[in-house]
């Protein structure tokens, strides 16, 4: 069986541009949640989110290029440069036909669609941008990364709401295992904090309305949680067949050893109350990994700060791990929920945790929900030896995807 190494990471999040800045902020327990200031939110029940405020596309793209890419695509380009540099992958020294890109998004270029809809209404069809479609559709993040780096292998974009990032990474690992690629750049991005995006999630009553205290609004597993907080950003892993990585003396962060994907088949937005879909995804990932349950020392939880979701995930973890569950934390307490980018960012966080033997905290956990009774590493980073870690992502539609990473 071909094995899958992680040789490069990159990230962009509300707490930092770059994987190292993001990781440092998370270990410090710093919240990236703040009032939204790039459009008028005065009529909205929720007026805050996790924005990447200091991103300047000019650092990666010239003016013409930047104008022809939507924000989630700009993020993807910037992070791909980081991840490829981190992997020290010289595309002239490898077979580019066997370097793939699997990068998804939950909602793609929503802001572009909103802007061009207004142009259509106000100025007519002749004034709509010829770049509307390529700026809007989800697959162009993967397409632009391929063009940027000359990766000519497998290339597509999974879309599974908030489990997109994990599905992208999991499917990339499967492509390497079955011999379809030697290297795959994998992950996901979303930029959903737009007038329509915020209105839609507000109308669904999915969001926290703690407008008086945004940094403390995302409260996974806390009795006072009242919904999730929207965030933007994402992450990428460079996955590589192990012998290929060793042949070029690549630095290896760890190995993708397990991937599980299931469906709740229950409800379009609510999780199965007993956590059965999540349980089966976790169990499938553990089974593929060949690890003992005791080998997994940390779970980066989906942990969105919703009343139903946090309980269902807690139940699922207990069903899989029994009397000795690992440490659990939700970094969404600091970043908010990056939608299709969440799992990819959290995979980067898991790799960082494995590397540094640190578990990032769940901040704002001051009054634990009695039905959420695991060790969620409240409020302070914790130093602990780790041999393997797990990352959960679950999405609207009942999509579940779990990854397991281990030391080599």
Walk me through the topology:
Blueprint (H helix, E strand, L loop, with lengths): L3 E10 L2 E2 L1 H9 L5 E3 L12 E3 L12 H5 L3 H17 L11 E6 L5 H14 L8 H5 L3 H10 L5 E2 L7 H14 L5 E9 L3 H9 L28 E10 H6 L6 E10 L12 H14 L6 E5 L6 H15 L5 E3 L2 H4 L6 H15 L1 E2 L22 E2 L4 E8 L3 E8 L2
Parallel strand pairs: 5-6, 5-7, 10-11, 10-14
Antiparallel strand pairs: 1-2, 1-8, 1-9, 3-4, 7-8, 9-15, 12-13, 14-15
Helix pairs in contact: 3-6, 7-13, 10-11
CATH superfamily of the largest domain: Thiolase/Chalcone synthase
CATH class of the largest domain: Alpha Beta
| Measured distance between first and last alpha carbons | 15 Å
The residue ranges in which pLDDT falls below 50 over 5 or more consecutive positions are none
Q: What's the CATH architecture of the largest domain?
A: 3-Layer(aba) Sandwich
**Pattern of helices and strands:** EEHEEHHEHHHEHEHEHEHEHEHHEEEE
Let me know the largest β-sheet. 11 strands, mixed
- Average of pLDDT: 97
The helical percent reads 25-40%
Number of helices: 13
Q: In angstroms, what is the radius of gyration?
A: 20 Å
Total count of domains: 2
Strand content bin = 15-25%
Describe the global form. globular
> Might you state the CATH topology name of the largest domain?
Peroxisomal Thiolase, Chain A, domain 1
- The number of E-state strands comes to 15
The secondary-structure class comes to alpha/beta
